[in-house]
Amino acid sequence: MEDAELIEKLSNEDTRNYGFNLLVRKYQERIYWHVRKMVINHDDADDLVQEIFVKVWKYWKNFRGDSQLYTWIYRIATNECLTFLAKKKKRFFLPIVDVEKELCHYIDEGYYISGDEVQLKLQKALLTLPDKQRLVFNMKYFDDMKYEEIAEITKTSIGALKASYHHAVKKIEEILTGN
Amino acid sequence: MRPNKHHTSPKKLEDIPPKKVFNVPEGYFDTLPGIIQAKAIESTKPAFIQQPGMALKWALPLVLLVLIAGYYGFKLNQTMPNNDTKIAKMLDEVSTSELVAYIEETDLTTDEILEVVSFEDDNLEDFTYDVNDLSDQELDLIMDDILIEDITDI
Q: In terms of CA atoms, which chain B residue is nearest residue A171?
């Protein structure tokens, strides 16, 4: 179903529930994978995805249609992920390393994780990046999104995004080659 | 034979194809919309209906607060009575003989006393009752006093 039709259904009180159900079905997987790549753990991703869609429902009146529907949902998801990770860091009080260790542990544990050695090594290397940089990297590298789309979601300039991605790639390659 | 570059240490990121390494439990995406829908509808209900336990959680301290406030209000009322009650309490502490002695020694006339003290119907009834309760001897003494006062006033 097209976004325009979804928007229409969600904006109509009589079809709101049905429209929301269709919206969740359409975007749940994309949002889940976007979140999962950031928080690594399935249970955390599950909680966050639920919260994200509940926010979409609650704040639907705030969607003015200035941006595309998926951009708006992605922005909510991105904010939720970053807030979640920031809270995690606050809980540890001290270094980012502890959160990195925790996320690394989830990869090692292999709880709903598969992939060969190189893929897992890449995932661990990604955890060394700052959260926002990792987010940009995921959207560009894994989701193959255009810089324009990422710019709209993250409210960052295209130039800054390109620089961020370039630095991320360089750092990851250094880690992968062991330099 | 071309080596499997995915199992050797890659030097470039482009050597690693973007691949999903994460999985979900079976049927996860089939049940998720229902869970989300239920949560979303729940979130729009008023907070107290949403969690019945919350209502009790707030009601109990509120009831306690009202009880404590009521108790202190009652105590305060007892410890800070109005002026009339205060005077009555003070007079209760003075013995009858001391009162008689004071009245005898003062220069207050009956009119001056009547100007200050107002007699309501209830007071008069009390007074009548008190007079009726007096013994003959006590009545004679009062009558003597009145006669003397009447004589002196003339």
A: B13
